[in-house]
C-alpha cells in the first residue's frame, strides 16, 4: 500500500550562529526533545529550497517545495495573494497586492494608514464603484492590506509598483517593465485606478471619522507586486496526490490553492506568534486520514527572525516542539520537517542559508544524527539537496513513483 506524505514547514526556522547564544543558532539553543527524536529515528540533511545562496520568498520557496521551478512559473506575488483570500482568477487577469496608505501634500507619510484595522470593507466598497477601462475586482485583506485584480484580455503583467516602498516620498507612476502594448495598457489603467482611488477615498466618511479621532486617513491605494496568474500544473494530476494544505498566511494559501491543493481552514493557524501549533497538528493528523499529501506551514519563527529576536524565536521553536507528540499516532506516513527558507535573527530577513531537514518514516534508513538543527543535520545521510527534489524523495519512500525505464 502506498504511504502518505506530510511536509511540515517551519517558516523561517533556519538561522546563523548568534553571538548572544554563544555561537549557537536558535534551533541549537532551543530544547526540542520531539524534533530531536524525529531526527534520531529519521534521516537528515540540509536543504537549499531553491538553490545554494538564493534567498527564497515564501511564495517562490513553497513553489519549489511543491516541485515547481519558480524561475519558470513565478510571475509576481499578486496572484497568490488574490487566490489566498479566495478571489477567483482567470488566466488573463493581472493581480496586485495593495496597501491602504496615507497621502499628505503629495507625499506618502504612512504606507499602512496608521495600521488601519477597521472599516476597510467600507473603503473597499467605495473603490469598487470606480469606473475603469477594464473590469476589476478590489477586496480588502487583513489589516491595511488589499488585493486588486484587473480583468480582461490584452493586459500585461510586467509593470512597476506604484508603492514607493518608502515614506516621505511621492508615490510612483506605474511603468511597463518590458516594452509591450499589453504592459503599457496595464500601466495606464493602474495609474488611472490610483488617481480615482484618491478621489473616492479623500473625503470618505471613514477617513473623516479617522481624522476626527486623530488617526491617519487611508486615502490612497498603493499597488505592488503585480503579475499574471501563473499556470501551475495541478498537483493532483502532476503527482497523483490528493493534497491538502494548512497555513495561516494568505500568500502560502494562495500558492497551495493555485497548485490545486485543498486549503483547509484552521483558525488556530493564525500566521502569527499566537498560532496554536497543537491545534494545527491535531488538524493535520485528522486531515491525513483523507489526504495523500499534506503541506503544513507554521509561521511564527519567521516573524521573530525578521524582528531579530533570538529568545522569542527559541520560545516559539519550543512551543512547536511540544506540540509534536501527536505525530507519533500517524501510520504509514513519511514526514519531512524543514523550513521554506532561513530567516536569521542577525539578518532580519530571509537568507540563502540551507535549512535542516529530517525525513522520518517507518523504514527510512537512519543515520547517526540525533538532533534537529542546522549543524547536526549537516552530518546526516541526506547530505544536501534542493527543495525541488523533496517531494520526489517523499513520493519514492511512500511508493508513489513510477519506475524510470524498464
Ligand atoms: Zn519572512
Specify the overall morphology: globular
Give the integer mean of the pLDDT values: 96
- In whole angstroms, the N-to-C terminal distance is 22 Å
Which topology of the largest domain does CATH recognise?
A: Alkaline Phosphatase, subunit A
- Across the major sheet, the strand order is 9-8-10-1-11-12-2-13
What fraction of the residues are assigned to beta strands by DSSP?
A: 15-25%
Count the domains.
2
Integer-rounded radius of gyration: 22 Å
Please describe the topology of this protein.
Elements: E1 4-10, H1 26-29, H2 33-41, E2 43-48, H3 58-65, H4 70-73, H5 78-84, E3 94-104, E4 107-110, H6 120-128, E5 136-140, E6 145-150, H7 181-202, H8 205-212, E7 220-228, H9 235-239, E8 243-246, H10 250-258, E9 262-263, H11 277-287, E10 293-298, H12 301-307, H13 310-321, E11 333-338, E12 355-360, H14 374-377, E13 383-386, H15 390-397
Parallel strand pairs: 1-10, 1-11, 2-13, 8-9, 8-10
Antiparallel strand pairs: 2-12, 3-4, 3-6, 3-7, 5-6, 11-12
Helix pairs in contact: 3-10, 5-10, 12-13
Zinc ion binds next to helix 12.
Amino acid at each position: 500500500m502506498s504511504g502518505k506524505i506530510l511536509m511540515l514547514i517551519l517558516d523561517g526556522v533556519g538561522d546563523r550562529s548568534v553571538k548572544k547564544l554563544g555561537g549557537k543558532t536558535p534551533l541549537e539553543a532551543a530544547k526540542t526533545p520531539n524534533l530531536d527524536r524525529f531526527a534520531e529515528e529519521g534521516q537528515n540533511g540540509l536543504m537549499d529550497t531553491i538553490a545554494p545562496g538564493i534567498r527564497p520568498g515564501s511564495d517562490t520557496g513553497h513553489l519549489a517545495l511543491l516541485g515547481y521551478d519558480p524561475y519558470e512559473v513565478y510571475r509576481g506575488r499578486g496572484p497568490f495573494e488574490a487566490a489566498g483570500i479566495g478571489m477567483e482568477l482567470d488566466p488573463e487577469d493581472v493581480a496586485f497586492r495593495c496597501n491602504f496608505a496615507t497621502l499628505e501634500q503629495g507625499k506618502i507619510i504612512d504606507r499602512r494608514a496608521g495600521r488601519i484595522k477597521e472599516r476597510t470593507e467600507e473603503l473597499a466598497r467605495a473603490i469598487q464603484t470606480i469606473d475603469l477601462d477594464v473590469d476589476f475586482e478590489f477586496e480588502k485583506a487583513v489589516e491595511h492590506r488589499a488585493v486588486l485584480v484587473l480583468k480582461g484580455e490584452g493586459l500585461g503583467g510586467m509593470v512597476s509598483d506604484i508603492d514607493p516602498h518608502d515614506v516621505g516620498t511621492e508615490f510612483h507612476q506605474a511603468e511597463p517593465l518590458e516594452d509591450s502594448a499589453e504592459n503599457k495598457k496595464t500601466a495606464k489603467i493602474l495609474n488611472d485606478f490610483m488617481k480615482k482611488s484618491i478621489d473616492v477615498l479623500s473625503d470618505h466618511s471613514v477617513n473623516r471619522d479617522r481624522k476626527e479621532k486623530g488617526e491617519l486617513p487611508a486615502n490612497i491605494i498603493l499597488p505592488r507586486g503585480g503579475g499574471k496568474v501563473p499556470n501551475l500544473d495541478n498537483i493532483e494530476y502532476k503527482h497523483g496526490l490528493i493534497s491538502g494544505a494548512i497555513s495561516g498566511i494568505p500568500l502560502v494559501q494562495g500558492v497551495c490553492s493555485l497548485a490545486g491543493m485543498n486549503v483547509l481552514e484552521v483558525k488556530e493557524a493564525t500566521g502569527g506568534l499566537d498560532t496554536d501549533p497543537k491545534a494545527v497538528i491535531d488538524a493535520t493528523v485528522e486531515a491525513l486520514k483523507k489526504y495523500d499529501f499534506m503541506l503544513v506551514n507554521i509561521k511564527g519563527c519567521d516573524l521573530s527572525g525578521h524582528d531579530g529576536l533570538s529568545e522569542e524565536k527559541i520560545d516559539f521553536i519550543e512551543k512547536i516542539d511540544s506540540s509534536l507528540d501527536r505525530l507519533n499516532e500517524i501510520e504509514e506516513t513519511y514526514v519531512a520537517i524543514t523550513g521554506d527558507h532561513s530567516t536569521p535573527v542577525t539578518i532580519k530577513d530571509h537568507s540563502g542559508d540551507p535549512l535542516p531537514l529530517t525525513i522520518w518514516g517507518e523504514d527510512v534508513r537512519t543515520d547517526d544524527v540525533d538532533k534537529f538543527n542546522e549543524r547536526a543535520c549537516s552530518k546526516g545521510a541526506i547530505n544536501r539537496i534542493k527543495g525541488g527534489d523533496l517531494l520526489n524523495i517523499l513520493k519514492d519512500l511512500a511508493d508513489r513513483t513510477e519506475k524510470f525505464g524498464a
